[in-house]
């Protein structure tokens, strides 16, 4: 019964628990020596693919990561969670910051051409750039239907029923395959890799390529001008009554 | 000069490593032994062992992530302490995670981790739940370690798969009501039946971790053995693999303890247990060595585990110092607090450096490491206790409150200075081994006056030349201090040996000063070596830590050596001991 093949993206990002520090040149954040892990939404994506495989809806999961050499570790985590093989699109160390959603979407489009999956699942957004664009761009390039911010995904008869988390609440849609999905946090509870699975993952294959091998130009279209800390929160004032409050607000030009 | 009583102490001449040497063949001499001889054996400590391949680093990094996730999401150390139990479904998750077979070869279903990788993973239990750490450690670090080290292929095939999966638990059964430190005095007996097919086991063990839940027991018992040469029958300790299913094995209720409460500790009774002869572990009569080697082999685990504990406690202390305000400033502004935080960091750094030097050298194939292992255990357990004590002090009254969560760590940590070889015994072991080295040196040098002459020359500054190893310039001061301190320590120790001769065995006050100095010297070497490696790799931030610890150690060693050489102190020591005798006699 298992027939679908899934391509899942996973990005190596600074671990969510780390205290971010702005670089001295104010063009980014400090990444050297800082703990990195798989983007949390991508964990949801991998987990969903693995569950679909366990339900025998999916027969093969290919985990893809675009990044420096260390992205291999992220792919290995995906393999340990249950992906079957990996593809590492390697870029020179230090240039991974310049890999923007359009470039990544183009890379994925080329991989789709190559691997011909039925579904592509990505994380909703990466917690470093918070773009929330790659899924949408990819769907556009491929001219495939998209189900973004998915919190429920069900398969039946060559279609996917997806519940999306939108500002107003929840939206149910149905998409024909092939399709692109982006995973939201409430889609599932990602498993952590067990040690035996980590050992098994070492034997699974990871194919390495460069963007050039796929004929993709990853030159950034956006340039970061400045990265700064959010302003330090100023102390508040306590006022005795509403009248004083109104005066203060007027004084400061808030009303 | 033979040291009567050294025979009580064990001697593992052969390496008990499980894997072939990875990088280079180690020489057969340990750095710690060199200290006693006034030697700085630089080839033993440089470079700092860096034994993990890129692949292994990646693997352990992923395992740590999985481990952290388990401990953060599933494990609740405080609840385990209150309930004095690890919930059954959590044990299942630990089995699934693969936590019970970390060092078992892959062919038997284990993770086949090296010592260093196991140590790294062990930091997790130190960071989150020491009780759980003892449960898993009693199982794999000592419970079935004997099968890993001494098991026949048949024994390994039969037992390791079920143990590695956690299907059944194991425990290490040596201690008895009247035999703790004096392990060779155990009374449990195993006598061969007439048919020659089974040993009949009778006895009682106490304070056995996992005793109430284990299925497989590594049991040590006296076996009447006929001496081939003399025909005399003597009791010799033999190690056995005992299954609960053999019948006759029972256990007492879980002990109510000060700490590590979720770890099951129980008495285990053996009543006419029929143990097949195939279940002898190692050689008949070789059980004492088996026991000591199992403990020796697992000792590195404590240093690593407690590194995790100390880091966690330091983080809590720093958080508090940065946020708590009293009088005019945050606590961090006060020198008293700064000193505490500094010392906690230095202790943690020195401990970590020693622990990973130890397991790194074990992985590199060091044939002998028993002194270094003992030193690491002594240092780690005392350092962790002190760090926890100071954490509570920094937190003030809050540190004393159950909900804040620190007091549980204090209760959990107390046992670490006692079990796996009490620090008191291990210190004597270190000192007496060292003293034995000095004795051997005197023998080689011929007569006493020659020996004294050589010592005098050393003392007057015929000291060590420059190191052959290129060391970062910032460490030169510490290196010189270490060289000078090793020399002074050697002279002072040799003088004591000359003074007391065989009687030095009784001089525990002196031996403790010797042991304390040797451990500090070892720690200085470890931090210098480690900081040097870090600097070579481009990270110079550790140099300050290493130098600060060396400065602190140098102060302490200077005092200890001065005490050893101070004739007046002998009288003070004796006066103090006499007070002790008065108290002991008054009962």
Q: Can you walk through the features of this model?
A:
The complex is a heterodimer of chains A (255) and B (587). Chain A has 255 residues and is an alpha/beta fold. Chain A has helices spanning 40-54, 71-81, 101-115, 134-142, 195-201, 242-251; strands at residues 4-9, 12-14, 36-38, 58-67, 85-90, 119-123, 146-156, 159-166, 169-176, 179-183, 206-209. A 9-stranded mixed beta sheet of chain A has the order 9-8-7-10-6-1-4-5-11, sandwiched between helices. In chain A, strands 2-3 form a two-stranded antiparallel sheet. In chain A, α2 crosses α5 and α3 packs across α4 (134-142). Chain A is globular and about 70 Å long. Chain A starts with a strand and ends with a helix. The relative contact order of chain A is 0.18. Chain B has 587 residues and is an alpha+beta fold. Chain B contains 21 helices and 10 strands. Chain B has helices at 31-36, 42-45, 54-73, 77-83, 88-97, 115-128, 130-143, 145-150, 153-164, 287-298, 300-323, 335-363, 370-395, 397-400, 407-413, 423-445, 448-459, 476-500, 508-536, 542-565, 567-585, and strands spanning 170-173, 189-192, 198-209, 216-226, 233-243, 249-251, 265-276, 280-281, 325-326, 329-330. In chain B, α12 (335-363) crosses α19 and α18 packs parallel to α20. The radius of gyration of chain B is 24 Å and the shape is globular. The A-B interface holds A 37, 72-73, 76-77, 80, 192-196, 198-199, 201-202 and B 55, 58-59, 61-63, 65-66, 69-70, 73, 96-99, 102, 106, 111.
């Amino acid at each position: 019964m298992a027939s679908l093949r899934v391509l899942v993206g996973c990005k190596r990002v600074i671990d969510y628990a780390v205290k971010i520090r702005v670089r001295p040149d104010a063009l980014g954040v400090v990444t050297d020596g800082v703990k990195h892990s798989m983007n949390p939404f991508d964990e949801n994506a991998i987990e969903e693919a693995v569950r679909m495989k366990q339900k025998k809806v999916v027969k093969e999961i290919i985990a893809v990561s675009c990044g420096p050499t260390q992205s291999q570790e992220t792919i290995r985590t995906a393999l340990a969670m249950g992906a079957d093989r990996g593809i590492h699109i390697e870029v020179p160390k230090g240039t991974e910051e310049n890999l923007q959603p359009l470039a990544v979407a183009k890379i994925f489009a080329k991989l789709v051409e190559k691997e011909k999956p039925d579904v592509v699942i990505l994380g909703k957004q990466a917690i470093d750039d918070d773009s929330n664009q790659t899924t949408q761009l990819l769907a556009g390039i491929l001219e495939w239907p998209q189900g973004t911010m998915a919190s429920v995904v069900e398969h039946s008869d060559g279609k996917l029923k997806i519940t999306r988390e939108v500002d107003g609440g929840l939206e149910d849609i149905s998409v024909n395959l092939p399709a692109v999905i982006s995973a939201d946090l409430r889609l599932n509870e990602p498993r952590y890799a067990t040690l035996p699975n980590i050992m098994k993952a070492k034997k699974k294959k990871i194919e390495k390529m460069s963007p050039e091998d796929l004929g993709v130009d990853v030159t950034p279209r956006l340039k970061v001008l400045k990265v700064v800390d959010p302003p330090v929160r100023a102390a508040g004032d306590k006022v005795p009554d509403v009248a004083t409050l109104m005066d203060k607000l007027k004084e400061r030009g808030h009303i | 000069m033979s040291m009567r009583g050294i025979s009580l102490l064990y001697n593992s001449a052969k390496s008990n490593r499980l894997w072939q040497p990875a990088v280079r063949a180690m020489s057969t001499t340990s750095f710690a032994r060199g200290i006693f001889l006034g030697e700085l054996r630089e080839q033993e400590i440089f470079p700092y062992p860096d034994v993990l391949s890129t692949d292994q680093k990646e693997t352990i990094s992923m395992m740590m992530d999985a481990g952290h996730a388990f401990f953060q999401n599933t494990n609740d150390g405080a609840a385990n302490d209150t309930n004095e139990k690890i919930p059954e479904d959590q044990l299942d998750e630990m089995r699934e995670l693969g936590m019970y077979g970390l060092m078992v070869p892959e062919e038997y279903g284990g993770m086949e981790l090296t010592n260093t990788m196991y140590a790294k993973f062990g930091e997790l239990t130190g960071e989150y739940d020491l009780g759980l750490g003892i449960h898993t450690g009693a199982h794999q670090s000592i419970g079935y370690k004997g099968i890993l080290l001494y098991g026949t292929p048949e024994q390994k095939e039969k037992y390791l798969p079920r143990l590695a999966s956690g299907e059944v638990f194991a425990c290490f059964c040596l201690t008895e009501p009247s035999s703790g430190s004096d392990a060779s005095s155990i009374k449990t007996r195993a006598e061969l039946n007439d048919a020659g097919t089974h040993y009949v086991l009778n006895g009682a063990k106490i304070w056995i971790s996992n005793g109430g839940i284990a299925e497989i027991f590594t049991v040590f018992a006296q076996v009447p053995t006929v001496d081939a040469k003399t025909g005399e029958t003597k009791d010799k300790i033999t190690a056995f693999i005992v299954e609960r299913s053999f019948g006759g094995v029972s256990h007492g209720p879980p002990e109510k303890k000060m700490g590590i409460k979720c770890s099951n500790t129980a008495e285990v009774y053996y009543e006419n247990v029929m143990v097949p002869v195939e279940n002898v572990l190692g050689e008949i009569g070789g059980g004492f060595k088996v026991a000591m080697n199992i403990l020796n082999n697992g000792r590195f685990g404590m240093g690593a585990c407690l590194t995790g504990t100390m880091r966690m406690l330091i983080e809590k202390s720093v958080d508090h110092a940065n946020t708590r305000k009293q009088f005019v400033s945050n606590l961090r502004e006060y020198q008293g607090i700064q000193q505490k935080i500094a010392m906690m960091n230095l202790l943690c750094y020195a401990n970590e450096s020693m622990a990973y030097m130890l397991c790194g050298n074990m992985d590199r194939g060091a044939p002998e490491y028993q002194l270094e292992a003992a030193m690491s255990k002594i240092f780690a357990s005392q350092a962790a206790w002190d760090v926890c004590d100071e954490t509570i002090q920094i937190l003030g009254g809050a540190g004393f409150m159950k909900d804040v969560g620190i007091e549980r760590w204090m209760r959990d940590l107390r046992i670490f200075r006692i079990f796996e070889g009490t620090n008191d015994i291990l210190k004597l072991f270190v000192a007496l081994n060292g003293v034995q080295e000095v004795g051997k040196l005197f023998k080689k040098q011929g007569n006493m006056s020659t020996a004294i002459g050589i010592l005098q020359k050393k003392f007057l500054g015929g000291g060590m030349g420059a190191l052959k190893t290129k060391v970062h310039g910032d460490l030169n001061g510490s290196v010189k201090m270490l060289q000078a301190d090793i020399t002074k320590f050697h002279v002072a120790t040799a003088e004591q040996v000359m003074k007391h001769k065989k009687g030095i065995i009784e001089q525990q006050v002196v031996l403790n000063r010797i042991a304390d100095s040797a451990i500090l010297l070892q720690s200085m070497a470890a931090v210098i070596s480690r900081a040097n490696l870090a600097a070579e790799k481009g990270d110079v931030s550790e140099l300050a830590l290493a130098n600060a610890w060396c400065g602190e150690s140098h102060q302490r060693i200077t005092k200890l050596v001065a005490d050893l050489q101070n004739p007046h102190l002998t009288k003070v020591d004796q006066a103090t001991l006499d007070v002790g005798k008065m108290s002991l006699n008054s009962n």
